[in-house]
Fold:
Amino acid sequence: MLELQDLGFRFPQRDWVFRHTDLTIASGSITSILGPNGKGKTTLLRCIAGLTRPEEGRVLRDPNIGYVPQASPSTFAYSVFDMVLMGRAKKVSTFGTPSKSDLVFTRRVLERVGIEHLASARLTELSGGQRQLVLIARALATDCTFMILDEPVSALDLRNQAQVLGLLRELAAEGMGILLTTHHPEHALHLGGDAVIMYGPDEIVRGEVTELVTGKNLTRLYGIDVATEVVLDRDSPRTVVYTRYDNFAKVINDSHLEGSSLA
Structure:
C-alpha cells in the first residue's frame, strides 16, 4: 500500500503548491491525477517517489517503486538495452555485474513494452515518444510493485498511447499499483479506477473516476466548456470527453471586447 498523510509542499518564500493531502493507493489499483499546468502534479509525484522532500506530512511507501518521469532529451549515448538494464541495478551487488537472468529479464521487458527492435539504438537517436517508452521499460525492469508515471503518453502517437494504456491496465490486473498524471480525462476514464482532481492547494478531491471526471468538474478545473457523453463503442458503452471550442472562442471575444481577461 502507498499512503500520503497530510502531505504538503511549497517552494521557499512562495505559496503552498498543495497541502493537507491524504491519499491511499492499493496494490492492483489505478489512480489518475488531473489538473491544469502549474497545479503541482509533477511535484506531488516527486514527493511520493522520494525525489522531493515535502514541507509537511509524510509518505508511507513500498520500497520498490518504479518512477517514470516525463521524457527529456538525452545527452548520454547509452543503448536502449543498457538504459533498461539499469533498472536491474538494485538486483546487482555493489561490485557485481548483471547476471544472465538480468539480461533475460531486460529482453522480456523490451518485448512487453514493444521496443525490442530498438534494443541497439542510442538514446540520442530516439524521438521523445520512443524515449518515453524506454523510461517505462526501465521502471518495469526494477520489478516494482508500484509504478508512478508523469504524463506517460504525452509524447506518444495514437498507436503507442493505446499500447501503453493497455499495458498499465494489464499491470494493475496483475497486482501492481499504478499512479499517473494525465492531461487527457478520456484516458483516465479508459483506465478506470480512481481519479484525483487538483483544483487548488487546499482542494484536492478523490473519487471513482466515473463519478469525478464529469463535464461539470472538468469545466471548473480547466476554465473551459467541457462536456462528456456516453457512446457505443463496438456495442459497449464508453464515455467521451469533448471541448466546445466555439463557446470558448466566444468567451474570449466577449472578454476582449469588455476589456477583461480570462483567469
